[in-house]
């Protein structure tokens, strides 16, 4: 009887234990990595397999949905999310030269070289340096959009350390792939505003434009999301520098052709920024990769698509755990 009581207590305590272990409100810490300091959060047990999440253009670590992070942690992963350089609480490149984004974008469109203060491979070096600082030798990598481009470089730099690669709504950067509309590009580049109210409206407009046509956005909710981002950190010049890093990047097809890391490519059929052929092209050039297309998914982590995304990603991550465990907490 005492054994049964103890067993019942343990079973009833599992959800509470998982919730405590996977608290997404852990403090944000700083790590010095070469020339930059990176703000990061580590969620879960240090002994669990590490999952490094790399955010896209202008995105902060808070833009990974908390409920998604918690679910990944509850599946037995130590989730590490961080601010890339030039956004959030990480180092801003104040010494960078003035940027004429219109001029550089024009050079990109006609196939000329683009100047950038740093590249995506430098940002991959930041991410690898963070894992070095945390003492994590091997880890899984999940990157979204620009974060997926950084993740490609990370897997190329240190293939022996990346246990699996998950690339969401990203691109190979090859010429000839479908381009977004000029209107969307203008919204993406339009980050400066004379006051907070206009900055929030601009960000809400961008979020709406990146959303799925199958989902009706709540404008007030978009403004709340914009407000959280703005109040944590607002650095439009940094976002422009990140965009230059993307524009300055040559095609990564040769890089993708040499990758041998277990890879899952996830893309939405309604992505307005990187249309679906970008994901198809990435998968076609990574030997042995798996491609999963999600109907209606655009270029945001909207509520309606969180479960389909988790359903796509979790089996891949679990299949490549080296501890052999499948946590169901």
TrEMBL record:
Keyword field contains Transport: no
Xref: InterPro entries: AB_hydrolase, AB_hydrolase_1, AB_hydrolase_fold
Ranges where the AB hydrolase-1 domain occurs: 49-299
Gene Ontology biological process terms from the UniProt entry: glycerolipid catabolic process
Signal peptide stretch: 1-18
GO molecular function ontology, one term from the record: triacylglycerol lipase activity
KW Ribosomal protein (keyword) present: no
Any matching Pfam family: Abhydrolase_1
Keywords: Hydrolase, Signal
Superkingdom of source: Bacteria
Residue spans crossing the bilayer: none
Name of the protein described by the UniProt record: Alpha/beta hydrolase
